[in-house]
Design brief:
Structural class: alpha+beta
Order of helices and strands: EEHEHHEEHHEEEHEEHEEEEEEE
Helix content: 10-25%
Number of helices: 7
Distance between the termini: 21 Å
Oligomer: single chain
Number of strands: 17
Length: 391
């Protein structure tokens, strides 16, 4: 497993499914409009990725670290361990086992094996909205849970989370994929041809739309909503897919499963402007972190998937807020959206809907007897690969 910072450049969009929602423009596998220029010359649905992988000595039984007993060493180790605190927290073991068994095609142990590796998704460009905040009120959420249990017809509007905003109160930037930090990497299918490292996490996928259709229900086709939605300035709606899954799979035996990295493209403007391919003084570490010439510097075949499997049922939903012309969110104009998570597939243990949250299993985020919800196949999704071949 390569450690350090490396890139995945111009991956191919292998799967793009938006048929779970109406209008279908609410789901997109393309970067938000504001991020597309920085991704050129690749298409909007070929997003670049930059990852950092760290190795933690002494993190599990097979680690090569030698334990030190000095107080100074212990303090240094404690400081170093802070680099390995995952954000967000990894999914539960039950959720990982359920999806490993029903969705991801893993062999036992379905949740994989512990490794000493941790992965962080870094940004590939400088984001202007670095201080996005989620305006959540925990006491309100608790109140909503209580009301839901007491009232078979809850106030639907109260179940919708507060909108995500920037520090100035304007709508937060749209998000195609997340930037989780220090996620523990696990090993799946040991010694098999499809052996791979991987992890997954959940995030709020979001998109801007110039059309009012998600709020009004009236057909209002807007060409600007295709391929990543509209710009924030043109947006009249911001839609959020909470508890969307982000899955990374790193194939260790690509040659046995027919996965070959894309051929190396000729060095051109796809590399960062501050890197000089002709300079012999550029270190390998720096070039691997800034190399956006396809397929990038990551040396293994990788599959990156965004889908709607798993997650916490009480937080998993699709909702939209209206927006004003000054890019601020209209907090009173909001609406749930109907999502078909089984489209073109078959779900295993489908999650209850928002009106079924009082069912016996609904409060159990472990998914009842199954261990999780919304396993199987189907639903909206995106998948990118840096390889050619077959599964």
């Amino acid at each position: 497993m390569p450690t350090g910072i490396s890139t995945i450049a111009g991956p191919e969009a292998r799967e793009q499914e938006s048929g779970c929602i109406n209008p279908s423009s609410m789901w997109s596998c393309a970067l938000p409009k504001e991020q597309q220029a920085a991704n050129e010359p690749y298409a909007a649905n070929q997003p670049n990725f930059r990852v950092e992988i760290r190795f933690q000595n002494g993190s599990y039984d097979h680690s090569t670290a030698i334990a030190s007993r000095s107080l100074h060493s212990q303090m240094l180790a404690r400081s170093a361990n802070q680099l390995f605190n995952p954000s967000p927290s990894p999914p539960s073991s039950a959720d990982q086992t359920f999806l490993g068994r029903t969705t991801d095609g893993n062999s036992e142990p379905y949740a994989g094996e512990e490794t000493p590796f941790y992965i962080t998704l870094l940004t590939t460009e400088h984001l202007s909205s670095q201080f996005t905040k989620r305006q959540r009120n925990n006491s309100t959420s608790s109140s909503n849970d209580t009301d839901t249990q007491a009232d078979p017809f809850p106030d639907v509007g109260s179940l919708i989370p507060s909108p995500a905003t920037d520090s100035d109160g304007s709508a937060a930037a749209a998000v195609l994929y997340p930037h989780p930090s220090s996620q523990p990497v696990r090993l799946y299918n040991r010694d098999k041809d499809n052996e791979h490292y991987g992890f997954y996490t959940y995030f709020d996928k979001s998109i801007f739309l110039a059309s009012h259709t998600p709020l009004t229900g009236r057909k209002d086709n807007v060409a600007n909503d295709t391929d990543g939605g509209s710009t924030r300035e043109d947006a009249r709606v911001r839609c959020t897919w909470s508890q969307t899954r982000f899955l990374v799979q790193i194939w260790t035996k690509g040659e046995k499963t027919g996965k070959s990295l894309f051929n190396r493209a000729a060095a051109n403007s796809t590399s960062d402007s501050d890197s000089d391919s002709d300079s012999s003084e550029t270190s390998a570490a720096v070039s691997s972190a800034t190399d956006f010439t396809r397929p990038g510097s990551f040396p293994y075949p990788v599959t990156i998937t965004i889908d709607r499997h798993g997650g916490q049922t009480t937080r998993k939903m699709v909702y939209c807020y209206g927006m004003e012309e000054d890019t601020h969110v209209n907090g009173t104009e909001k609406k749930f959206q109907i999502e078909d998570r089984a489209v073109n597939g078959e779900l295993i243990n489908p999650a209850p809907g928002i009106f079924n949250l009082t069912s016996p299993d609904s409060g159990n985020e472990e998914g009842g007897n199954e261990g999780g919800y919304d396993g199987g196949t189907g639903g909206c999704g995106c998948q990118w690969v840096n390889w050619v071949g077959s599964d």
